[in-house]
Write a structure and sequence with these properties.
Blueprint (H helix, E strand, L loop, with lengths): L4 H18 L3 H8 L4 H21 L8 H26 L5 H13 L14 H7 L1 H12 L27 H9 L2
Helix pairs in contact: 1-3, 1-4, 2-3, 2-6, 3-4, 4-5, 5-7
Length: 182
C-alpha cells in the first residue's frame, strides 16, 4: 500500500494558499502605522502563493485519505505552516535567525506561549498583529474558560488574573498604551 502523496501535496498547497491570504492582512497595519514591514509580508505571501499554487496545480489528489496520509498531512501541515509563518519575522530582521523565527512561529501556531523574545514590544505593529492572533486566541479562550477539552466541561479558568492579583501583570495597560496610543 503506497502513500497518497498527491493528496498530501494538494492539501498542503491549499494550506499555503490560505496562509498566504492571512499574510496579507498585516499589510494594512504596516501601512497605517508606517512600520516599514509591509514588503516582508508581501514577499512571504508571494512565496506561499507560489508554493501553494504549485502544489495544488501539480499534485493529483486520490479519492480516499487513509490513516497514513492523515498522519502525514497533520505533521507536514504543522511544519509547513510554521515555516511560512516565520518568514515575516526573519525577512524583516526582527528575529535575525531563521531557526528562532521558526520557533516563534511554531510557538504561535501551537499556542504554547513560549517565546524567544525578551520584549515583544520591539516588534513593529504589523509583526505584533501577525504574532498576536496565533498564541493570543487560544490563550485568551483558555484564560476566560471558553475552551474545553473533549469529555470535559468548559468551567471558567481559576488561575491568577490582573483583577485578582495586580502583581501578576503590572504593566499590561502601559504596554497596550505604548503600542496603540493613549
Amino acid at each position: 500500500m503506497r502513500l497518497g502523496t498527491g493528496t498530501i501535496g494538494v492539501l498542503l498547497g491549499w494550506l499555503f494558499l490560505f496562509l498566504s491570504v492571512a499574510l496579507l492582512i498585516p499589510i494594512a497595519f504596516s501601512i497605517y502605522y508606517d512600520d516599514g514591514n509591509w514588503q516582508f509580508f508581501v514577499i512571504s505571501s508571494a512565496i506561499g502563493f507560489v508554493l501553494g499554487g504549485g502544489l495544488v496545480w501539480s499534485c493529483v489528489s486520490e479519492p480516499e485519505i487513509g490513516h497514513r496520509e492523515g498522519f502525514a498531512i497533520v505533521a507536514f501541515s504543522w511544519l509547513s505552516a510554521a515555516a511560512l509563518g516565520a518568514l515575516p519575522y526573519y525577512l524583516s530582521g526582527a528575529i535575525p535567525s531563521y531557526l528562532n523565527a521558526y520557533f516563534e512561529s511554531m510557538s504561535g501556531f501551537t499556542t504554547t506561549g513560549a517565546t524567544i523574545l525578551e520584549r515583544v514590544e520591539v516588534l513593529g505593529p504589523s509583526l505584533l498583529f501577525w504574532r498576536c492572533p496565533l498564541p493570543g486566541n487560544s490563550a485568551h479562550a483558555r484564560n476566560r474558560g471558553h475552551a474545553a477539552l473533549p469529555g470535559r466541561d468548559a468551567r471558567p479558568y481559576k488561575g491568577p488574573s490582573c483583577a485578582q492579583d495586580p502583581g501578576y501583570c503590572p504593566d499590561l495597560m502601559e504596554r497596550i498604551l505604548d503600542l496603540y496610543g493613549s
